Amino acid sequence: MKVLMVCLGNICRSPLAEGILREKANGKGMDLTVDSAGTAAYHSGERPDRRSQEVAKKHGIDISGQRARQFERSDFEVFDRIFVMDPSNYDNVVSLASNNKEAKKVELILNKLYPGKDLPVPDPYYGGRDGFENVFRMLDASCEKIIEEIKTNGLEGS
Questions:
Q1: Per residue in 101-132, pLDDT tens?
Q2: Which positions ≥6 away from 73 have C-beta within 8 Å?
Q3: Buried b / exposed e across 104-119, counting CB within 10 Å, b at 16+?
Q4: Beta strand pairing status for 33-38 and 81-84?
Q5: Whether 123 is catalytic
Q6: What average pLDDT does the segment 5-22 reach?
Q7: Which one of the listed residues 49, 75, 86, 123 is annotated catalytic?
Q8: Is residue 7 flagged as an active site residue?
């Protein structure tokens, strides 16, 4: 299975989600491909925000090798599931879908914890370190649900 995490600039939330999900999958010996992207190209080619790297490292996850990139229409063909961080990301990604099948691949990540609530993962960029820790906890819990769902439904190798 191939999973894509998407936020606005691909330097705070989605790199954390990518790192967390990859670490969880690797820890369980799962065959999962995980990547991340942003709906905007503001930071293309850059490493994740220093604060995202620090909070990930604090939890034993290295995301320093990631590089920001912009979401592309072709991502619908590559990825089985696309998790977005907020309703704005959702609208931006779904607007690029060519059909209903592609649009159905897109889901707000916090709906894994709060089904149907469409809650955003807050963007910690303009806040302090506490915001990054808070985002990490939200994404960690959501990624745990994603792993459980993949294992329960036997989707790992698909």
A1: 999 999 999 999 999 999 999 999 988 889 99
A2: 96, 98
A3: ebbebbbbbeeeeeee
A4: unpaired
A5: yes
A6: 98
A7: 123
A8: yes
